[in-house]
Amino acid sequence: MIDALLALVLVAPPVLRPSSLVPMQDTTKGKVVYVKWCAGCHGDGGAGDGTAAAHMLPRPRNFTGALYKIRTTASGQLPTDADLMRAIDEGLSGSAMPAWKGRLSDAERRDVAAYIKTFSSFFADTSQHVAPLKFSGEPSGGTGANALKTGRQFYDSIGCRKCHGDQGRGDGPSAPTLKDDAGFPIFAADLHQSWRFRGGGSAADIYRRLRTGLDGTPMPSFSDLIDQKFLTDEQLWRLAQYVRSLSPPEPPEVRDVIHAPQIAGTVPVSPDDSVWRGVSRYWFPLVGQVIRKARWFAPAVTGVWVRALHDGHTLALRVSWDDRTQSPDSAWLGFEQRVLETVAGDDSGQPPPKAEPWPDQLAVQFPRHLPQGMERPYFLMGSETDPVYQWRWTSRPRRSVAGLARGIERFDTLPGAPAGQASFDHGEWRLVFTRALATPDTANEVQLEAGRAIPVAFFSWDGSSGEHGSRMAVSTWYFLALDRPTPPGVFISPVLAMLVTLGLGLVVVRRAQRRGRGGPGR
Amino acid sequence: MSKLGVAAGLAVLGLALAAWSHYPVPDAQGGGTISGKVKFTGAKPVMRKIDMSEEPKCKAKYTAAPPTDESVVVNANGTLADVFVYVKSGLPASYKAPAPAGPVTLDQDGCRYHPHVLGILVGQALAIKNSDGILHNIKAKGTKNRPFNISQPTVMSSDRTFTAPEVMVPLECNVHGWMHAWLAVLPHPFFAVTGTDGAFTIKGLPPGTYTVEAWQEKYGTQTATVTVAGSETKTADFSFAAK
Question: pTM of this prediction?
Fold first, then answer.
């Protein structure tokens, strides 16, 4: 009997308590992970003040206030555990926060999430209400004209444009005054780059951000408007879908070679010429120049779109990029000063530079000569012994020059400048450089030959972010290929081949038929 | 014309509500009173003018003089307005705060907060009104209370409550960088905000010795120790000097 009871006890499954259903979290182990992987940016005490923090904009999260941008909870509420895990697992696009899934084990990520919560007493406060909002499913038809029209209507009526601007590039009238709760300057998001949205770029992600707001930032929650029937839940979805429609359907893929088709007639010199609409565009990401002093860790221009055409005599290169400001712009001087004070350039201990009305600039770089192999000059503006050939455009004075760069510090202007035409429209610069494919100065100016891989690189400066000189955004080398006009043979040969094949086939069939009829009877 | 009338009516109503909620009068049945004035010494600072050109609707409300920064408001009699005076400590442990009456109203009118400085009880509703009918967002940036940030693009009102005592919870609008208000959350009703005469009165205090603090947005805080017994009235004057 006793044996039987003992056996029962041993065999009986332990009673499942709710806590054992949740994976165990260990803050002691979490601390080990935190100190090794997180403290460098977020600081030992979780105050967002690690050694790397001073170079970042946006700054790393300060965990002591328990304020989190990306949540599924109402404005001001603590995030759920799932919200924290999402940020850790997937990272926060458009910021320095990487995705940790795959780098840290499931247990390590859970433990570190638990440890992060110990930095604020709010998480231990059981009176805090932590529940995700009830989100509806996305209504269909979100890319249709009617949905987008409704979305745009609410974009205007609830005042999105105040910060995000009329076309959504973060250039609204209030944008230059924005600060986060810690007093750091903060940009209104460029809604044309949904792949950089911290909480994800889908319409559903955008809808959630509209419902929850981004705590610690100027972005409010719009949930009260649904409660008060100013708009319906579906209309808020339409707004999210409209915002989503401003960005490309997929994040831009980086392709190494810009193909410049040859067109009949002459190339367009204006950036707003309708010819450009039919030309493929290529995306090239830019990063801060952190190799040479003064370094720059917060590039304002995150990439450029490039289109190219030629007509057998002249190349037209169209570069467009999002920039909130048509610099210099006195309305942004205060913002520029705050950016310069927030983003430390070097460890030199120098005081931050003073904000000045710098212009916007863009440079396109080529080697002086087309390389035979893969050897190219140093991508960062060449060197004393191996200079690079550049086109440089500035917004004020509005002009384009060509010259030789021998490193960041030295630029010698050449007499022959490319033609440059630029327009600025609601936070976007569009610039077209045109230059003859062949020029007399073959020693210094790259000769643009069709059918060759022409190395090309891009540099950008946003004056209103304090960018000038070595404080700039840079790309690596890519290639420009001027397509040769297609020789007529390309179109004729396949047709000829088909005709010959057809003819031969007919002959074979005819002969087979004749043999069938004229052959011995069966 | 009728729109204007409605707006004006709302504005008046808002101001009236604001004024009404300005001085919560606790149960005045007996108890001690602390009253006084908040003086200002030194050169009266020149307050920055606020350019409201981006909001013509707000700008139009300032016909007499352009609006100015409200961080220091010196009255005609040389006293300071918008100083928050409250009992910081000294209440008996047994003291139980009265259940909060109706909401305290904060109105956004003319792209400014009315009042600029206000107090509220823990658990009491703050009714945040938008009388302007243009986009404001209201952000509370407390550290002891959870923050919030809500959008109000139209004439509307939203209620929020606060769970912990905190002096001060900064309130701000990010659409209009000049809009700031200061909210004190207290576990008791013994507070007042100085008005155009620079005077304050705190009534209904149980007998005891209190630390009374005067808070001014730009000049910081000052404290006084006051003992009250029975239903007597004690005076506590404060003085802030120009910086």
Answer: 0.87
